[in-house]
Amino acid sequence: MASLTAMAGRRTLRREERPDGPRRKRGPSSPGIAPWLFLLVPLGLLVVFTLIPVANMFWYSVTNWDGLGPEKDFVGLRNYVTVATRPQLFEVFFVSLYYIAASFVQMALALYFATVLSFKLRLRNLFKGIIFFPYLINGVAIGFIFLYVFQPGGTLDRITGALGLGDNHFWLGDPSLVNWSLAGVSVWRFMGLNFVLFLGAIASIPSPLYEAAELDGANRWQQFRYIILPGIKPIVSLSFILAISGSLAVFEIPYIMTGGANGSKTFVIQTVDLAFKFNKVGLASACAVILLLLILVITWVQRRIVPEERVELS
Amino acid sequence: MSVIDRPLPVAAPSAPPEISAAVRLRRRVAVALKYASLVLAALVMVTPIVVVWMTSLKTPAEAAAGEPFTPPSNWFNLSNYVTAFVDGGMAQAFANTSFILVVSVTGTVLIGSMTAYALDRFSFRGRSMVLGAFLLAALVPAVTTQVATFQVIDFFGLFNTRWSAIVLYIGTDIVSIYIFLQMIRSIPVSMDEAARIDGAGPWTVYWRIILPNLKPAIATVVIVKGITVYNDFYIPFLYMPSEDLGTISTSLFRFKGPFGASWEAISAGAILVIVPTLIVFLALQRYIYNGFTSGSVK
C-alpha cells in the first residue's frame, strides 16, 4: 500500500501524452464522466463498507448504545475511561506480548530457512513446499489439529515425554502455558509466508554479487551478513511491522481453540464479545478505536523506518 | 589482501592437506547441521497433520485408546469422513463456500481492474482525492471496524445472507486494487490510443485491451483472494450464523460441538477441508508462490 501515494505523483506526468477522444466537448485534459462511471461501484463500496463504518465507530464510541434499541446517548469519553481503568479490559493487551515475542521467533526462523534454501540443496522444492503449506491451511482446521496435538497426554506430551520434559502438560488449560502454546501455533501457521517472501527477495539479489564475494573468500555467514541481509532489509522490516500489528489483532486461533478461556483472551475476542455477546456496542467501539489508533501509529512508524521506494522490491 | 603476491609455501607440503582436511570436516558438519535443521522443521510442520490424518482413519475404539503415533488398523476406513461429510453438513458448506468464492473473486477482479483503469488511464478532477480515500481505507484493518460494519450490513438487510460475505469480500479489498494498479502501469498507453483511433470508447478499451492484458495480475488476485475466501472464518462467523449458510470454516467449527469428544470424526472434518487446499497447492505451486510474493508486499 505504501506506494499508492508515490503512484499518484508519477501518474500526473502522463497527462499530456493522452489525446482525448474526438467526441469530448470539454477541455483537452478533461475525460468527462467516463472515469466516474468506472469508479461508481468501487467508490460506493468503499464509502459504504469502510468509510461509513469507521466514522460510525468513532461516533458509537462516545455513546452508550447497546446496538439494538434506538437509545443512543452521548456519554463523552466515558467508554475510554472505562477501558483504561478497568483492569480486566486492559489486561488483554498483555496477551499480545506473547504474540509479539513469537513474531521475533517467526522472523528469525523464516530468515534462516529462506537463506538456507536460497542455495543449491537436495530436495529443495520439497522443503520449501512443506514449510510454506501450513500458511494455506484453513484456520479452523489448524485449530482442531492443534487441539488434538495439545491434549494432555497427547501427541506433544508424548514427544516432550520422550525428551524427558514431562508428559502431562495442560498446554491449553494452564494459564502460564496457554499463550505460549497459542503463539506457537501462530508461528507454525504464519512462518511459511514470511519464508516465501524472504526467499523471493533473496532471489532478486543479482547472483554475480555472490560469485564476486566467493572469489574474495567470503564465507556463508559473511555473504548473509553483507549481501543478503542488506538486500532484503526493507521486506524484513515491513514483515516485522505487519507481524506486530497482526499480534495486536489476533482472533482466529485463540477463539477457535480456547474461546479466550484461561487467560488467552485477546483484544479482538474481547471486542467481539462486548459488541455481539454483551451488546455493549459503545464500549466495544471504544476498544476498536483504540486498536485502530495503535495500528495506525505502528504503520506510521513503519513508514518512517522503511523508505517508500524500497518497499516496492518485489 | 596480499595473498596473491606471497610466494607459495613450497617447503611445507604436509601443512595444506591438514588444514583442508579440517576445513572439509567443518564443512561436512555444517552441511549435516543444515540438513538436520531442515528435516527437523519438516517434521514439526508435517507431524501434526499426519497424526490427525491417521486419527481420521481410526475406529472410535482405536481413537479412544489415545495412541497418536499408532497407525490405524485399516488405512482405507473412510467411515469418519462419511460422518463428517453428512453430519457436519459439509456438502452444503462446500456449496456455500463455492458460490461465495466464485462471485467474490469475479467481483474483486472486475472492481479492482475497473478502479485501476479509471485511476491510471484518466486524469480528472478529484482523482487524487479518490486515491487518498483508497489509501486511507488500506490503513484500516478490517478486524477493528466490524463493530460498526455490522450495523451497515444489518441496515441493508444483508445479515444472515450469503451476500453479506460477498459484498464485504468485494468491497473492502484494497490489496487487489493495488496489484492491478501496479500491473496496469506496464501496459503501454499506445495500445489504448490505437484502439481509440479505431473508434473504441472507454468501455471497449477496458474490456478488449486492459482486461486481457492484466492476465498475470488476474491470476495473482484469483489465487490470493480464492485462498483467503476459502479459509476465512471471521466474516461468515459474524454475519451468517444460520446453520444452512455454513461455509467450510463455520460448518467445521460448529461440527465440533456435538462431536466434541470423538476425535476421529473431528480429524476427518479437518482433513476433508485441507485436501482441496493441498490439491490446489500441488497443481498450482509456482503461481501460488508468485501470487503471495507479489500480493503480500503491499
CATH topology group of the largest domain in chain B:
MetI-like fold
Q: If classified by CATH, what would the architecture of the domain at 92-264 in chain A be?
A: Orthogonal Bundle
What's the domain count of chain B? 2
Overall geometric form of chain B: globular
Helix content, binned percent of chain A: 55-70%
Number of strands of chain B: 0
Describe the overall structure.
The complex is a heterodimer of chains A (314) and B (298). Chain A is an all-alpha fold and 314 residues long. Chain A has a domain at 92-264: MetI-like fold. In chain A, 67% of the residues lie in helices and 0% in strands. Chain A has 15 helices and no strands. In chain A, helix 3 (78-85) crosses helix 14 and helix 11 runs antiparallel to helix 14. In chain A, 42% of the residues are buried. Mean pLDDT of chain A is 84; it is low at 1-29 and 309-314. In chain B, helix 4 (90-121) runs antiparallel to helix 13 (248-255) and helix 13 runs antiparallel to helix 14. Chain B is globular, with a radius of gyration of 28 Å. At the A-B interface, helix 1, helix 2, helix 5, helix 6 and helix 7 of A face helix 1, helix 4, helix 5, helix 6 and helix 7 of B.
Question: Can you give keywords for this protein?
Answer:
heterodimer; A: 314 residues; mainly alpha; 15 helices; globular; disordered N terminus; disordered C terminus; B: 298 residues; MetI-like fold; 2 domains; 14 helices
Show the helix and strand layout.
The complex is a heterodimer of chains A (314) and B (298).
Chain A: H1 4-11, H2 34-60, H3 78-85, H4 87-90, H5 92-116, H6 124-132, H7 139-149, H8 155-162, H9 178-203, H10 208-215, H11 220-248, H12 252-257, H13 267-277, H14 281-305, H15 308-311
Helix pairs in contact in A: 2-14, 3-14, 5-9, 5-11, 9-11, 11-14, 13-14
Chain B: H1 15-56, H2 60-64, H3 79-87, H4 90-121, H5 127-139, H6 142-155, H7 162-171, H8 174-184, H9 189-197, H10 202-213, H11 215-231, H12 234-239, H13 248-255, H14 263-296
Helix pairs in contact in B: 1-14, 3-14, 4-7, 4-8, 4-11, 4-13, 8-11, 9-10, 11-14, 13-14
